[in-house]
Amino acid sequence: MSAPAEPLLDEIRLTGLRVTAHHGVLEHERRDGQVFLIDVTVRLPLGPAAATDDLDRTVHYGELAEAVVAAAESEPVDLIETVAERVADVALGFAAAHEVVVTVHKPNAPITVPFDDVSVTILRRREAGRRP
Q1: Are residues 101 and 123 in contact, defined by beta-carbon separation less than 8 angstroms?
Q2: Residue 92: CB atoms within 10 Å
Q3: Which of 11, 64, 93, 108 is most buried, judged by most C-beta within 10 A?
Q4: Catalytic-residue membership of 36
Q5: Which residues contact 34 (CB under 8 A, 6 or more apart)?
């Protein structure tokens, strides 16, 4: 007997969520805070939601945006890698989400050479059989 086919995964994207938070290794980053930009792509099958016009079968992007911002603004950490993990955990907490890609941008990173952006991108998948 063959395994059931994996559903086709579509995407819901939020780009450029602006968060002011106090993450970083340096004292002034923690004290003064800075702007971080967060991009989140949630991969999920959108066909069932579209066919039934049922919000419960997708991810409410407004609720996702609020949850991502709350997670990113929470307790200060040293690394944007940690912030990205927090955001991925929050996004995978939505029942319809199968995978998430998170990019955390730190456009004002304390770097001594000219640059446009510093970012970290991670991909996380829901564990097989795990539901929130």
Answers
A1: yes
A2: 19
A3: 64
A4: no
A5: 20, 21, 22, 23, 24, 106, 108
CA 104, CA 64: separation in Å to the nearest integer?
Answer: 15
**What are the pLDDT digits (tens) for 37-57?**
999 999 999 999 999 999 999
Find, among 13, 3, 30, the residue nearest to 103 by Cα.
13
Annotated active-site residue in 106, 122, 129, 130: 106
- What is the H or E stretch that residue 47 is in? helix 47-52
In the chain the beta strands, taken as DSSP E runs, fall at 10-21, 34-44, 99-105, 119-125
**132: its two tokens:** 């929130």
Residues recorded for the chain? 132
- Which of the residues in the chain have pLDDT under 50? none
